[in-house]
Amino acid sequence: MNTERLFTIARKITDDIEKNLVIDTLATLQSALQTQISSPSASNLSQIEISLETLQTLSTSPDFHYPETWNQALEHIGALSVKDASFAAQTVAAVRGNSITLESAVATVRRIHTNLVTVRTALASILEAFENLGLESYDVEEGEAELSILMPRPAFSNELKAFAKDLTEIAKFLELSEEIATGSRSSPKLEELSTTDPLIFAGLSIPACLLVIKITKDIIELITSTYNLREARASALAAEASLKALDALDADIEAKIESGLKRIADGVIGPRAKGRMNELRIELNNYLPQIAARLDNGYKIEGNAGVTAEEQEDDDKKSAASQINEISREIRYSALPQAPVLRLTLTASITDEEGPEGGAT
User: Fold this and answer.
1) Which of 45, 123, 133, 353 is the most buried (most CB within 10 A)?
2) Buried (b) or exposed (e) across 299-312, using 16+ Cβ within 10 A?
3) Residues 32, 118: Cα–Cα separation, whole Å
């Protein structure tokens, strides 16, 4: 994670903490709980309830909800508890669950308050140091776009050959997207590569980035639509159903995914395409199953584009850059069914054959 991106993350977390008066609310709650222990009163109980209600609203607030691609940086700076306002849920659960033994609730609130004060102080130091060094937040330049792709390590079992194969297949798909969107096939530019779970930032043209983001959104919606079938399969598995019954459910899921991916491909390039466009349609049909398999197995794809001042002021016409950012916000927090059904074939034993890996089981 480079310094400019870390600056952006630190600034956003700090702004969310300050704007929502989180530190003050926790301090007020802690004080009211301590007073209630020593001198119980209705006014103290009222203050406790007000503080809890304030914290509960954070779960539905647009603040504190950060993309999965930030998890690595959040963990490194000790701020993972801030994501999704989990500290607020922990606080409310601790107080409501210990209404009789308030001492235990006070201890939990004190720990959470102390942790957030430490995080805020550390972030303030980071921001001050960056500003003194002349380092500013990272923003995609106007007219440019990039994709961030999070690759979970379990998908390639920490094996270098499998990781290399995965990168190759992703690059090929992005090159294909460039040609479909712009008419010219070019290799995406690697802006940055971070670990622990590999996180790639790849520069693409705005049309290609928009195409990938739209495809990603459509695939996520398709996978989500199989949720009932997945639940039925999980129940059948738990009930030790016959292999024949499980195979039938797998076939139903596979058929739904397969037909859905074909519709997505036809939406990008019509089924009556001729010549080179027909070749691209066939290539896209071959790649979509592997992209679906990756998304089903924990990969995250998001886009980010630089919007010009003129585009920001034009409410009647959404530019491609604006669409990239808007769709990315929509898919950022999409909750896919927990158990993947689509098979992702990325192991050290894979061959060097050309063509995409991954598909439905």
Assistant:
1) 123
2) bbbbbbbbbeeebe
3) 22
Q: What residue has token string 């630190």?
A: 10
Q: Token digits for 351?
A: 């061959």
- Residue 74 token pair: 């959040």
Strand partners, 145: 204, 305
Residue type, 112: I
Alpha carbon 97 to its chain centroid, in Å, reads 31
Asked whether 188 and 202 are in contact (CB, 8 A), the reply is yes
Amino acid identity at 300: K
- Which of 41, 136, 137, 54 shows the shortest CA–CA distance to 91? 54
If one counts every other C-beta atom within 10 angstroms of the C-beta of residue 187, the result is 11
- Closest Cα to residue 52, out of 100, 118, 115, 109? 109
Query: How many other β-carbons are positioned within 10 Å of the β-carbon of residue 131?
Result: 11
Q: List phi, psi (to 5°) of 136.
A: -120, 175
Query: Distance (Å, rounded) from C-alpha 292 to C-alpha 270?
Result: 20
- Residues with Cβ within 8 Å of 199's Cβ and at least 6 positions away in sequence, in order, are 1, 69, 72, 148, 149, 150, 151, 192, 193
What one-character DSSP code corresponds to residue 20?
T
Q: Which amino acid is at 350?
A: I
Long-range contacts of 231-238 (CB under 8 A, 24+ apart): 231/337, 233/341, 234/339
Say if strands 145-150 and 199-204 run parallel, antiparallel, or are unpaired. Answer: antiparallel
- 204 three-state secondary structure: strand
Does residue 85 contact residue 61 with C-beta atoms inside 8 Å? yes
